[in-house]
Amino acid sequence: MLRTGLVSAPTAAARLFSSASARFASTLVIAEHDGAVLAAGTLNTITAASKLGGNITVLVAGASPKAVADTVSKVKGVSKVVAVEHAGLKGLLTEAVTPVVIAAHKKTPFTHIVAPATTFGKTIIPNIAGKLDVAPISDIIGVKSEDTFVRTLYAGNAIATVQSTDAVKVVSVRTTAFEPAAATGGSAAVESSSDGAVDQTQSVFVGQELVKSDRPELAAAQVIVSGGRALKSKENFKILYDFADKIGAAVGATRAAVEAGYVSNDLQIGQTGKIVAPTLYMAIGISGAIQHLAGMKDSKTIVAINKDPEAPIFQVADFGLVEDLFKAVPELSSKVKAK
Amino acid sequence: MRVIVGVKRVVDFAIKARVKADKTGVVTEGVKHSMNPFDEIALEQGIRLKESGAVKEVIAVSCGPTACQETLRTALAMGADRAIHVPVEGAAYETLQPLAVAKIFKKLAEDNQANLVLFGKQAIDDDANQTAQLTSALLNWPQGAFAAKLSVEGGSKVKVVREIDGGLETIELNLPAVVSADLRLAEPRYASLANIMKAKKKPLDKKTPEELGVDIKPRIKTLSVEEPPVRKAGIKVENVDGLLQKLRTEAGVTF
């Protein structure tokens, strides 16, 4: 008995060690917000964080973070909220936010630091990793374990499983790959501070020019109506807007449509634009180039309307209609029930 | 002012990647390569700054196998003044990651007294979108990622208009700085035959990671690379009524 006990001791110790390290996993989620409203992708990021095990702390940095911190404290699964207030955090510039994150990490070291893989997260996550001398991992679509993640390469044409050997994992999360965490049911404590770590000597936030729209936000929309070069002009996009408004959809576009000036570039879907995965994606006058498919091929149902029966988009479309869009879209518009 | 531009040799954007049968990566042998499209844009911006008189010298840098020298010759033909090739071959190249590349650029930026380092916002092979941000962190210089416009303001600042999710954002960075190019920053030029010939005479130096004192060992292990799931074949409908009927009965659409 004693012998058996001794022989198995190293295994038991190893098990104890690994469960201990799992218990001590602690994740810092960097909240994205505009000063008043929490960006939706933060909730999906919290779900990804919950798959890592351990406690979840959310950092809300801003010129006036209180309202957003209160919102985050109610999100299910959040253990603690750290609200850092400083006038220099207006615009959430990297040079201001990174030192705040590093300071929080120095105070209570985290095993994981994560943010949504939006422009905000893509901008700041590698910068934080650089300061910690660790290799960041971009745009993960799956969590296999504490140190092993899944992400796409080559415009979504290859899926890699990667393992980090760094002590701290600094990761951005593809929001469409994770469900949003429940916005209610949590009761995390909010810890407020006015952090002196903010660096205002290197960069200045001048201003933003946001595109105003009453349509749903692309990244979170259930239905997206998307147009390509075949729309032929900015004016013709109106038929997509009319249709989208009737069914409560967001409007997206290909790089070609953006470059031709038909729509503003924040509507671009694809490898170099936004990645979406709505319930229904309607590709209208879109040929289906590799770079565009990278941004939408995880949509639940894909519809293609194109007059070219050979267009590659038909290879990924669940339902395809070979017809001139200038005939088909107005007809669709007239036959759908208004929302 | 001196500008360093990072240019990566990648599988051409028009080629659909094929995953290797042994799941270790993507087939790159015998496949057409070219300069990463975002790097062409960054380089074009660097050359335009030189043409405007704001910049004195543009240095193009590429890390990787000998074939990267072709990418650098392209950069020289477009208008870069000189080039630096950082040779990384074989297995070391297969696992060369943005953190190691950023360390190489940090050293080169310091050694060459650069005031501005330009990159494309992401390489279209690993889709990482990290190198510019990592380089700015290592140098402790400010960053302007996803630049749609870049202008030099006096001798000590750059103004960057960035593409953000909801529109555009304008920031000012104190030089030295690191900026990454988005698609709309500049339309890259084609190199003329005369300039391609001239580029052959421009200086192309070699600096190994060892000479630069940079450890390029990977921090991330790739366990497997697989094909994405294939969508099941769809159907073609005859007309708008057929489409609406399918959407309502099979896709649960309520409109």
TrEMBL record, chain A:
GO molecular function, one term: electron transfer activity
Binding residue positions for FAD: 229, 254-255, 268-272, 285-292, 306
Subcellular location: Mitochondrion matrix
Stored Gene3D superfamilies: HUPs, TPP-binding domain
Cofactor note: Binds 1 FAD per dimer.
GO cellular component, one term: mitochondrial matrix
Top-rank lineage group of the source organism: Eukaryota
Domain Electron transfer flavoprotein alpha/beta-subunit N-terminal positions: 27-209
Named cofactor requirement(s): FAD
Gene Ontology biological process terms, A to Z: fatty acid beta-oxidation using acyl-CoA dehydrogenase
UniProt keyword terms in alphabetical order: Electron transport, FAD, Flavoprotein, Mitochondrion, Transport
InterPro entries to which the protein is assigned, alphabetical: DHS-like_NAD/FAD-binding_dom, ETF_a/b_N, ETF_a/FixB, ETF_alpha_N, ETF_asu_C, ETF_asu_C_CS, Rossmann-like_a/b/a_fold
UniProt similarity note: Belongs to the ETF alpha-subunit/FixB family.
Functional description taken from the UniProt entry: The electron transfer flavoprotein serves as a specific electron acceptor for several dehydrogenases, including five acyl-CoA dehydrogenases, glutaryl-CoA and sarcosine dehydrogenase. It transfers the electrons to the main mitochondrial respiratory chain via ETF-ubiquinone oxidoreductase (ETF dehydrogenase).
Quaternary structure and partners: Heterodimer of an alpha and a beta subunit.
Protein name, UniProt field: Electron transfer flavoprotein subunit alpha
Natural source organism: Capsaspora owczarzaki (strain ATCC 30864)
TrEMBL record, chain B:
Cellular component per GO, a single term: mitochondrial matrix
SUPFAM superfamilies: Adenine nucleotide alpha hydrolases-like
A biological process term (GO) from this entry: fatty acid beta-oxidation using acyl-CoA dehydrogenase
Predominant subcellular localization, coarse grouping: mitochondrion
Organism domain of life: Eukaryota
InterPro entries per record: ET-Flavoprotein_bsu_CS, ETF_a/b_N, ETF_b, ETF_beta_N, Rossmann-like_a/b/a_fold
Subcellular location: Mitochondrion matrix
Entry GO MF terms: electron transfer activity
Domain Electron transfer flavoprotein alpha/beta-subunit N-terminal residues, every copy: 23-216
Key words, A-Z: Electron transport, Mitochondrion, Transport
Transport keyword on record: yes
Any Pfam family: ETF
Family: Belongs to the ETF beta-subunit/FixA family.
Assembly behavior: Heterodimer of an alpha and a beta subunit.
Main function: The electron transfer flavoprotein serves as a specific electron acceptor for several dehydrogenases, including five acyl-CoA dehydrogenases, glutaryl-CoA and sarcosine dehydrogenase. It transfers the electrons to the main mitochondrial respiratory chain via ETF-ubiquinone oxidoreductase (ETF dehydrogenase).
Protein name listed in UniProt: Electron transfer flavoprotein subunit beta
